[in-house]
Amino acid sequence: MNIEESLGFKLAKASQRMFELFAACLDQASITSKQNGAMLIIHEHQNITQKEVALLQRVDQTTMGQIIDQLEEKQLVMRVKHPADRRAYCLVLTNKGRELITSLWVEMKHCEDVFLEKLNRDEITQLFKLLDIIEKE
């Protein structure tokens, strides 16, 4: 038995390393990794609801509610009436939120470059393809 032969251990260590590279950027922006993820999803999906963000991020709805409340307090996200469903609210980034997520995206891509620097372009493409296959349910 060798822990280094455990896929879960390898994936966790890789994830930890990537998070450590990006953590300083998140700290400087005063947001968490989950808040950043929610903002990225909101940025990508027009008229998305809180429930849909929770599903995409694989977070329970109560936790997502807390995340969105925190982002609203920081004036990064707003809840607005859903155009097709009067009972629902959509999440949109504020101007401040769009500016922050744009700058964090640049920082994250730089961290990814550092994280993946030992791989060539073909290996990186293959890694993304394999992760897509594994991650899909």
Notable traits:
globular, 137 residues, 6 helices, mainly alpha, Arc Repressor Mutant, subunit A
Description of the molecule:
The structure is a single chain. This protein is mostly helical and 137 residues long. It has one domain (15-135): Arc Repressor Mutant, subunit A (Orthogonal Bundle). It has helices at 7-29, 33-44, 50-57, 61-73, 95-115, 121-135; strands at residues 48-49, 77-81, 89-93. It has a three-stranded antiparallel β-sheet with strand order 1-3-2. It is globular. The two termini are 29 Å apart.
Briefly summarize what is shown.
The protein has a single domain, classed as Arc Repressor Mutant, subunit A, CATH 1.10.10.10.
Largest sheet: 3 strands, antiparallel
Number of strands: 3
Q: What is the CA-atom radius of gyration, in angstroms?
A: 17 Å
Helix content: 55-70%
Give, in order, the helices and strands. Answer: HHEHHEEHH
Q: In which order are the strands of the major sheet placed?
A: 1-3-2
Given the C-alpha coordinates, what overall shape results?
A: globular
**Any idea what the CATH architecture is?**
Orthogonal Bundle
Return the structural class. Answer: mainly alpha
Low-confidence stretches: none
**Could you name the CATH class?**
Mainly Alpha
The overall number of domains is 1
Give the distance, in angstroms, between the N- and C-terminal Cα atoms.
Answer: 29 Å
Helix tally? 6
Q: What name is given to the CATH topology? A: Arc Repressor Mutant, subunit A
CATH homologous superfamily placement: Winged helix-like DNA-binding domain superfamily/Winged helix DNA-binding domain
Q: Averaging pLDDT over every residue, what do you get?
A: 93
Strand content: 5-15%
